[in-house]
Amino acid sequence: MTDAHTVENPVPTPLIRSYRELMSVSGNRALSTALTLHAVTGFFEGLALLAFLPLAQTLGTGESAWGMTTTGWLISLGVLAVLAFVVRYVEALVGYRAAGDFIQSAHRTIGDALAKLPLGWFDRRRAGGISSLVSHQFMSAGEGVAHLLPALVSGFSTLLTVVAGLWVFDWRLGLIITVLAPLTILLLWVSQRIKKAIDARTHAAAAEVSSRIVEFAACQPALRAAGRSHGFTPLEDAAAEDARSQYRSLWISSGALALGAVSVQLLVTSGIIVSGLLALDGALPPLVIVAFIGIMLRFAITLQNLSNSVVGIEMGRIPLRQAREILTAETLPEIETASPLPTPGEIEFDRVSFGYSPETRVLEDFSMRIPAGTMTAVVGASGSGKSTAASLIARFWDVDSGTVRVGGTDIRDMPTSQLMAQLTMVFQDVYLFNDSLWSNIAMSDPEATDAEVFAAAELAGVTTIAEVLPEGWQTVVGEGGRSLSGGERQRVSIARALLKKAPIVLFDEATSALDAENEANVLRSVDALRKTSTVLVIAHKLETVRRADHIVVLDGAGGIAEEGTHEALFTSGRRYRDFWDRRAAAQGWRLTAT
Ligand code: ADP
Ligand code: MG
């Protein structure tokens, strides 16, 4: 599925630009300086290597080469070594500043971008991805700035210097290196690529095993009830696959390593053979050839580092691409100043059409008005657009045509803060902060007293959750609230809504079967919320539906099939009656009085 908000840039962005756009101005400057310095060190290193050739020549012949005697060349080598040392020191300082800036600014840049994205952008999958992106993936991308880019630049600089220098010194040596170096880099790159790809696959298989183990543990009650606590096939399959993949990887990555080693050997050996032949020919003095072989040996290390950094940088592309996706995602136009609200608490859909993609419409010419202070229940088949309608009120997305009004004003004519101040949302997929149970409620009204927080929690039934948790109210709920059940998370979310007392409450009731106690809490809370707010509830429980002042039945084709009070619809609404009967059967309800 492609939605308009994740369109891939068809032209790959140059990697360096992906890094740069995540960094501050001063960080960018530090990076430029660091890379320039690395180019300089690379050059010095190349020169130092090359200096061995004339040095060998002067040693062999006793005469000066290029105007300098042995002593002169030795002194030059010393000077180069000192220079390289000084530059290295400076570049280490600047380089770390650039890397530190990357990690800091990337977090800030991404954070700022996320704050501007439409709420609809954040689904659960993405929420998980973002947390891994900003936690460890950026650290490894920072590694790219600190080590890999510099290694790449200095490696190339050395490479170019040595190749150019050899051509100047003797064209035959130049030719040897020009042929061999690219070949070696290619082979090294291939071997590294294979190895990294294999590592990634092994990790995936291992991750599969660990998630199967979690599943196995989580499903224990069900498995035992079915008498199947031994021989859980998915786990066994995953373990077998993991073992196979480990074994395969071992073979392939050994092969890849061998290829890498062979390619270096190839470079050195062929260098030795060809230059040895030149020496036998008398074309070059033996000492120079010895120096050349020494250069080749040292040069092989440079090539190895170079290909390592290329592969490392390639691996860093993934978080950078995700970051780009966030930075380039479409944002909703937003105005700065608040608009007057002629009818506070009112919600209105005025001929709204909306679809997640142009081909499929979820709402089509949809109109509905919910007067302030009333409670409306929306019912309809799964996929008929109930949750979508609720999220359009909170401007998760902008409508394709028509208008959504809150408080009598087009929501596009309000800043997000003005819209959000009027709403609370209790949605199905409640994502809690990895903070204490108490803070997760109190956050919805920072001014609230402890007594108010407690009252809201009590009403929503969170008190009973706190009672059984090891550290009570101070228990940390885990990222997203994963240590609580779905029903419990929704209760926390209801408590937030009760505390915030916004003029409008959007409530997407959990579809999962709630236990009786949970259901009682929800109903009590809804009764309390409707006293202070307009309530729009996407209802699955008959009790909730029956309480509503007005019921809207969606037709599954983007419009409204029937609407009215429970009494009116129950007697004359075919669809509603249908809905009611099926739910009643599912819930094992017998209707005694309406
Ligand atoms: P309901 O709440 O009534 O079950 P939804 O509003 O969740 O229905 O979904 C209406 C339609 O829109 C469904 O076909 C669903 O698959 C689709 N849909 C819902 N959310 C998204 C989304 N984020 N991206 C693309 N399609 C979606
Ligand atoms: Mg829904």
UniProtKB/TrEMBL annotation:
It is a multi-pass membrane protein. Gene3D superfamilies: ABC transporter type 1, transmembrane domain, P-loop containing nucleotide triphosphate hydrolases. Residues 347-582 form the ABC transporter domain. Signal peptide: none annotated. The keyword Transport applies. Belongs to the ABC transporter superfamily. Siderophore-Fe(3+) uptake transporter (SIUT) (TC 3.A.1.21) family. Pfam families: ABC_membrane (PF00664), ABC_tran (PF00005). This is ABC transporter. The lineage of its organism: Bacteria, Bacillati, Actinomycetota, Actinomycetes, Micrococcales. Residues 39-315 form the ABC transmembrane type-1 domain. The chain crosses the membrane at residues 30-53, 65-87, 145-167, 173-191, 250-277, 283-301. Keywords: ATP-binding, Cell inner membrane, Cell membrane, Membrane, Nucleotide-binding, Transmembrane, Transmembrane helix, Transport. The keyword Membrane applies.
